[in-house]
């Protein structure tokens, strides 16, 4: 599969991608645990069928020391014993926030309450923003047919600022 469009080769596309990356840096620098961020990005990317993002976030999580078993079980997190209650709350919020377009009723009060049990205001702001941003990134990459497989951890580090 070849991408339909090289966003980074287009001046406006590159400018937008850089802004998106800088939003991601603000989230990365938040107090939301990095492992939770990785799990959330991977799960939303799986739901949205974004091969590029699944590749990207699996490799970055691995490079950051995430356990392979946990990465393999993200798609079946409800039937797995390797996630904390806080991670489960974040994954539930991710799924409900991602599936809005699938006629899902949105984020349930129960899921919201569970997330608020585990995350303070700064962390919930980061988590909500992360879910919104990964969904935007997934959609962008799916629309242009950006394939998975070639990502190298840290390859976008020079995009900052």
UniProtKB/TrEMBL annotation:
| Annotated ranges, domain Carboxymuconolactone decarboxylase-like | 20-96
On whether Methyltransferase is a keyword of this UniProt record, the answer is no
What's the domain of life for this entry? Bacteria
Q: Which Pfam families match?
A: CMD
Q: Enumerate the UniProt keywords alphabetically.
A: Oxidoreductase, Peroxidase
GO function term, MF aspect, one: peroxiredoxin activity
- Which protein are we looking at? AhpD family alkylhydroperoxidase
Q: Which organism is it from?
A: Actinomadura citrea
Give the lineage. Bacteria, Bacillati, Actinomycetota, Actinomycetes, Streptosporangiales
